Amino acid sequence: xxxxxxxxxxxxxxxxxxxxxxxxxxxxDAALRTFERVGYEKATVASIRTLAGISNGSFxxxxxxxxxxxxxxxxxxxxxxHASMSACVTPETTAAEGVVRLVRGHLKWVMERxxxxxxxxxxxxSEWLAQIRDExxxxxxxxxxxxxxxxxxxxxxxxxxxxxxxxxxxxxxxPAQMFCRAWLSGRESEAPDRHAKSLIACAARAVVKx
Length: 210
What we know:
Blueprint: H1 5-38, H2 45-52, H3 56-62, H4 66-86, H5 95-112, H6 114-122, H7 133-156, H8 165-185, H9 196-207
Helix pairs in contact: 1-2, 1-4, 1-6, 4-7, 5-6, 5-8, 5-9, 7-8, 8-9
């Protein structure tokens, strides 16, 4: 007597889902490595799928073009960065501690994910991102909301200067961002975290009262 028919079907779907997820991840990783090695413009679907060990048909099952693949990768990386930064602060985090956590969080994410960070920063104005602008906007809005849950209480208690949240975040992350971009491009050889204290102090002077 046959048993477990429904469970077997569910397991089969789960396994197929895992395989699909693995294939997508392999393609995204291969794309990142190819973009890193030869640049976006010189990368081809053929070079990406060859590095991934994926057939032509499998590639186009997941992504209709190199542009769609790159846009998907960009959105994944952006969400990874936002998730990491959002985890740095809570509504209870003080102004001074929040600055420390956000600057160190930014430096840590960039240094631990150097290839991803370079791709994110270098491709942020690419024309092929137009196809995901709505998703990108939603992701950015969710991140702003997460940051505002820390910023708004600190504005109410007077521990942050009364500036628009976007300006506050620019003042906090801006110096670290500029240094990280220089490091990622090779213009600066020293690791960003070597200057964490100075970057934190710069941000704190700009936004923390007292």
